[in-house]
């Protein structure tokens, strides 16, 4: 049976690819998409989610804009990576998918309430929407099977030397979700940096020859240019779709169950995730933390999704 999923995101080039994978694969039953401020403002991330669903030819999945700022800190956006629109690179027309009038948090709550079974939440932006949901509707803890999160790192960070962007953007929210009692699996930079969009990957996508494939190449080429300019990467890492790939095929990623904390107070380390991989602390294991990636299996899933949607459109 397909896994019922709510996608909470901030598109973003890698979020855009995660949307395509989620709608293309029969193992995923995408029930709703909520967006949050992160890679761009929430108005732009909602527009970008609608653009990608429209491009994929998907109707019937509601999209709503959620929280426009973090719980406690000022908003910082990732425009230095994703550009003025949040999806710089291609030229997009007006999306055919409408904006749901509900607040994104209300959309998540309503979708959970309507489900006959617990739903998996895939959270690939700052965790503001999910923390707000659990504050407003603590009963929803029982309606969430798991939150699969793109966030954190067992190594260094990217937005700051030790903090990954999604967690840094709202560390209070990340800490609340981690401490909520809802099961969590974390896909950090140490995993996603194993999913580089190398020249051979771009060539495989381009060879598909469909309009969707061309848009994907344009998106990933822009993404690669900002990654090279900012961090010197020869090829950019495609973070967010790993969360969806892991749900489709759990052998894509190996993980360890460890004690995990979110740093809130360090002047140089705020937003860092601290994973007790070597069991040095007296911490009860409280999260699944990604360690390794089957790169070939991941790219077969991702490129297969682009191919399938391109054939259908």
Automatic annotation (TrEMBL):
Top-level taxon of the source organism: Bacteria
Keyword tags: Glycosidase, Hydrolase
GO molecular function terms noted in the UniProt entry: hydrolase activity, acting on glycosyl bonds
Annotated ranges, domain Inosine/uridine-preferring nucleoside hydrolase: 5-300
Lineage: Bacteria, Bacillati, Actinomycetota, Actinomycetes, Streptosporangiales
UniProt-listed Enzyme Commission number(s): 3.2.-.-
Enzyme class: hydrolase
Protein name (Swiss-Prot/TrEMBL): Pyrimidine-specific ribonucleoside hydrolase RihA
